[in-house]
Write a structure and sequence with these properties.
The complex is a heterodimer of chains A (138) and B (309). Chain A is mainly alpha-helical and 138 residues long. In chain A, 58% of the residues lie in helices and 6% in strands. Chain A contains five helices and two strands; from the N terminus they run αααββαα. Chain A has a two-stranded antiparallel ribbon. Chain B has 309 residues and is of the alpha/beta class. In chain B, strands 6-7-8-3-9-10 form a six-stranded mixed sheet, sandwiched between helices. In chain B, strands 2-1-4-5 form a four-stranded antiparallel sheet, covered by helices on one side. Chain B has a four-stranded antiparallel sheet with strand order 12-13-11-14, sandwiched between helices. The two termini of chain B are 40 Å apart. Classes of the chains: A mainly alpha (138), B alpha/beta (309). Chains A and B meet through helix 2 and helix 3 of A and helix 6, helix 7 and helix 8 of B.
């Protein structure tokens, strides 16, 4: 068996003109990658310098995203080498993913209420759209 | 360490043209500092003043603690500088100009230059006059980087270059910043600045109208879209620094800095406001608003009283 550092392979897509701050976009994408199993506990994320260069974004922005992910327990420091995905991270990220979707859904529902749709109409709409998405998956 | 780059109350005019109007700025070490502004806003004059290539009418400039007027030569030797149209000895080849420039610097210069030339895929044997614009820019960047400067100054480095070369420039810039160096760049590629800058400064007609950390700026500024109820006639009173306000029928769009969250909630509760949306604008929208200087955009609706911000 070869002992070496496995750097997680993941794709980021950064849109600087998005209303969301760039560091926040990185935080979210790492969480989604962890939640979806694209990167697993024990795997290393790219170094600040590597990722900054790859995305052509400010290194302090990447560092800030990593600090945030560390503070939230998604990433953990490996002494002298860098950052890896923490042990309990996948479960934590999956529940965060639900929270994120919940927030978006709440916004849409609020908008629907503002435009004076009645609850039954909203429910029908949701069911209909959900069915359409399910069909697409097959 | 102290600020690496400093302008103190610098003014400069060319004939009747005011290039710099009482400009003061400080660039701390280890940041990417972006100077934004339209052509003729004073960006190049500011940079030339720092390098001792232009003499200010008033005020002073410093780079790495050296006075720009007295020690211009020493400054130019210690910083890496790439101008928009780099002046190169046209009859030299890519390899020759590296060898020539190495004479002014220490031992490590030539191998580092050759490494960069290889990294950028430049043809060493080709004469400079036969290079494309992108290649020339890469030669200029290689010459500027080969002495490992503490400070890199780039004046519109990517204007007129194709996407791939621009990307390489950005990557080099980012890599340098990651190594703790200071980068000052002037640009009107706002999308690029939004990616790489720590601090942005906006210049307009020789004046510095904004200096702020990019992340802080994005947290400070909101664009509100307010839809008024049928009966309402007065525009909404939004408290904060109003950067731009425009009206389409019963809707107002207000770009505001320093908007308090509590105030946003108060606005939502106002009976005259049917709907209120708040979003974070892009740097480009912020930039345009600053250049228009908070002035009201002409609206198709009949003139109305505007509440004081």
């Amino acid at each position: 068996m070869i002992w070496g550092i496995r750097t997680a392979d993941m794709f980021f897509s950064i849109d600087p003109s998005d209303g969301l701050a760039i560091y926040d976009q990185i935080v979210r994408q790492v969480k989604f990658a962890v939640a979806g199993g694209a990167i697993r506990p024990g795997e290393m994320v790219p170094s600040v310098r590597e990722l900054a260069k790859e995305l052509a974004i400010n290194p302090n922005t990447v560092a800030r995203a990593y600090r945030e992910l560390q503070a939230q327990g998604v990433l953990a420091a490996v002494r002298g080498t860098g950052l890896e995905v923490a042990d309990g991270a996948p479960r934590h990220c999956r529940s965060q993913r639900v929270e994120l979707i919940r927030t978006r859904l709440r916004q849409v529902l609020w908008e629907a209420k503002q435009s004076r749709l009645d609850p039954d109409e909203i429910r029908r709409l949701v069911e209909h759209e959900l069915a359409a998405v399910e069909k697409q998956k097959v | 360490m102290d600020n690496v780059i400093r302008l103190k109350h610098v003014s400069k005019r060319y004939g009747s043209q005011i290039a710099l109007n009482d400009v003061s700025l400080d660039v701390p070490p280890g940041v990417v500092f972006a100077l934004l502004g339209e052509n003729g806003a004073g960006k190049t004059t500011a940079i030339k003043t720092l390098l001792g290539l232009a003499t200010p009418d008033a005020g002073s400039a410093e780079v790495l603690g050296l006075d720009s007027q007295r020690d211009g030569l020493a400054i130019r030797r210690r910083v890496g500088y790439v101008s928009e149209r780099p002046m190169l000895y046209e009859w030299m080849t890519v390899a020759e100009i590296g060898w020539f420039t190495a004479g002014f610097y220490g031992d490590g210069y030539l191998p580092r230059y050759e490494g960069l030339v290889q990294q950028y895929g430049l043809p060493g044997g080709r004469k400079l006059k036969a290079l494309s614009k992108g290649m020339r820019a890469k030669v200029a960047l290689s010459l500027a980087l080969a002495h490992e400067p503490q400070v890199l100054i780039l004046d519109e480095p990517t204007s007129g270059l194709d996407t791939l070369v621009r990307r390489e420039f950005l990557e080099s810039m980012v890599d340098l910043a990651a190594a703790g160096r200071t980068v000052l760049l002037s640009s009107h590629q706002i999308g690029e600045v939004e990616r790489v800058a720590d601090i942005v400064a906006i210049m307009n007609h020789g004046r510095l109208v904004l200096v702020e950390r990019l992340d802080a700026l994005k947290e400070q500024i909101r664009e509100l879209t307010v839809t008024l109820t049928d009966g309402a006639s007065a525009p909404p009173t939004v408290r904060g620094e109003i950067l731009r306000r425009r009206q389409r029928a019963r809707q107002w769009q207000v770009l505001v800095r320093y908007l308090a969250n509590e105030h946003l909630e108060t606005l939502r509760g106002e009976p005259a406001i049917a709907e209120l949306e708040a979003r974070t604008p892009s740097l480009e929208e912020i930039f345009v608003a600053y250049l228009n200087d908070g002035r009201e955009e002409p609206s198709p609706a009949p003139a109305q009283e505007v509440a004081a911000p």
